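Case study 2.
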Amino acid sequence: MISLAIALVSLGYNTWRNETSEVHRNWRQAAFQLVIEVNDLQQITLYRRYFHGREEHSHVPVRNARTWITGWGKAAAIRDLTAVLPPPLPAAGQALHETWAQSVGQLDKKNAAAEKAEQQMLETIDDTRQATLDLIDRLR
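Prediction:
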């Protein structure tokens, strides 16, 4: 009976440990991808703010449509990746997506609203990046 009890406890613990390890592996992989996406969005934000419309052939109605579309894709990817991670990342991803939605139209202007939009985006990006790095650190 003791051998059976030990076998069942061992099997239960092993199953629990494997499932926990798998969840952590998935979170870690998503977190590393999230860091890449956040860094890409930061580059797009800074490009739109400082170089947008200064290149040749910027006659597209939505100035530099490539950064517009890529930025929306990155913001959506960040929101979706954070949704499968533990708190506070889902809220951070949603906040970043909302900040992008509010800021993207202002980034390429030369006024105080553009500076404010840039500052809000960079702060939100930094908050999301830090929350992601904290998760990676906890998963060690």
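The two ends are 38 Å apart (CA to CA).
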